[in-house]
Design goal:
The chain is an alpha/beta fold and 276 residues long. 36% of the residues lie in helices and 20% in strands. Strands 1, 2, 3, 4, 5, 6, 7, 8 and 9 form a nine-stranded mixed sheet that branches. Bound molecules: guanosine-5'-triphosphate and magnesium ion.
Length: 276
């Protein structure tokens, strides 16, 4: 992970770019709640699978073209195969929220698929990239993660300027971190009025350990905040791989105005995924 400020984050990579061509679409059903937690990464078939099929089809077509060109060669006719260049789009995503809520952990989980159990405070800004293939376009997520301690708020412009989406994050097991979202939102909007906002609750695994009354309260307030922010609301767990990939799929759909067929989950106690 590249760090744009001093960091004590030595256990993590200096810089990462992962290219994924086969993203899974998550379908979380009621069974997830019954099992409490299950891995989204092991699940389902996806839109992007079909886009890969398209790519494969294109490859097949290219192969066909190649065989044509071989035939042509046999006829002594020189043919230069034209390869359509892949479009590359960079999507800058900012992550903000209080300290220790799991921002860096979620970023590392999404980019590298690994869960980091130890808390290593982000001293400034972390940065990671991940590329995915969407039809014939390569989309590179450029993810900027701001340390949650207030002293790093001076670096907010680095994270927000030119971002097309901002993840406003809070810890589902710590109510005060949700209240803080208000102030984070105010500060971000002062710098970037246009970025899509997504409200992300982290540590859904710990939320499940709360009393039903507390779960209800957090869910109600999170829904209220999301509505006021006109933002999708997603409950996630990096430790148990719940809704991590979905955050970025929904973000992508929002940014590119694509139809998002990820099922909505709105029921109290479930891993909420709604508002898109
Ligand atoms: N149980 C559980 N713990 C988590 C989860 N996500 C993160 N954590 C833990 O929460 C702690 C803080 O995570 P970080 O990702 O470092 O938090 P942060 O928001 O980046 O903190 P700052 O860098 O200080 O802003 C770490 O010990 C993580 O292992 C989760 O989904 N479930
Ligand atoms: Mg961090």
């Amino acid at each position: 992970m590249a760090s744009l400020a001093s960091t004590n984050d030595k256990s993590k990579p200096a810089s990462t770019t992962t290219t994924t061509t086969n993203e899974n679409v998550d379908t979380i059903t009621d069974s997830l709640k019954q099992q409490k937690l299950s891995s989204e990464d092991n699940k389902k078939k996806s839109n992007d699978d079909s886009s890969n099929n398209n790519n494969n089809n294109n490859n097949n077509n290219n192969n066909k073209n190649n065989s044509n060109s071989t035939n042509n060669k046999n006829n002594n006719t020189a043919v230069v195969a034209e390869k359509k260049p892949k479009r590359n789009v960079v999507v800058k995503v900012g992550m903000v929220g209080d300290a220790q809520i799991g921002k860096t952990t979620l970023m590392v989980k999404y980019v590298e698929g690994q869960f980091e159990e130890d808390y290593i405070e982000t001293l400034g800004v972390n940065f990671m990239e991940k590329s995915i293939t969407l039809k014939s376009t390569e989309v590179t997520f450029s993810i900027w993660d701001l340390g949650g301690q207030r002293e790093f708020a001076t670096m907010l412009p680095l994270v927000c300027n030119d971002a097309v989406a901002i993840l406003f994050m809070f810890d589902l097991s710590n109510k005060s971190t949700l209240s803080s979202v208000k102030e984070w939102y105010r500060q971000v909007r002062g710098l970037n009025k246009d970025a899509f906002a997504i409200l992300v609750g982290t540590k859904y695994d710990l939320y499940l350990k709360l009393s039903e009354k507390d779960q209800k309260e957090v869910t109600k307030q999170a829904k209220r905040y999301a509505k006021a922010m006109k933002a999708p609301l997603i409950f996630s767990s990096a430790s148990h791989s719940v809704n991590v990939n979905k955050i970025f799929k929904i973000l992508l759909a929002k940014v590119f105005g694509l139809k998002c067929n990820i099922p909505k989950i709105t029921k109290q106690g479930d891993p909420i995924c709604m508002g898109y």
